[in-house]
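Possible regression after last week's pipeline update?

I re-ran a chain I had predicted before the update to compare outputs. Posting the input and the new output here so someone can diff against the archived version. Not blocking, just want to make sure nothing changed silently.
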Amino acid sequence: MDEVEQLKEDIRQFQCQNTFCKGNVPGSYVVDSKMLFVGSQPSPLSDMQEPFTGKDKDIFDNLLTFLNLSRKTVNITNIIKCCCPKLQGTAIENYQRVWQPILIRELDMIQPKVVVSFTDYFPEAALEKYGSKYYRRRHPASLFYKYGSEEEKLDQYLNTFRDVDIEIE
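New output (post-update):
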């Protein structure tokens, strides 16, 4: 079993202590990509196969298209891998600590040069050894809580990514 498959298997086998957990969602990895997108946790509406497959899937995919990327060219993960409804506040911080060793394994495997995080809980200091460019942006699901047409909301959201430098030297 190669490193990617071993990591995915370890994530699937990890025992979550939350009785409401629906299961664990491993990241989606492209071994030769140095671009990483990071969410906080899987959506309860997730298909449980990869990150960003809940109701925010279309927005995330539009973002990738806007950046001239696709799911086949980037790494995508969540800090918390278990799909537990209603994790908030200190519960998220506790789960983040539990899952951090797996996140560090992901970072060591990917060695990202560009990281876009959709969460406040990303341990930015962990990127120092890779010399990564780091961008913190609002989560794609934030569009569901704004007023306006779908097109206007998407345009406003995508405009916040105009400064993201995806060029990898």
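Follow-up from reviewer: compared with the archived run. The two ends are 30 Å apart (CA to CA). Marking as no regression found.
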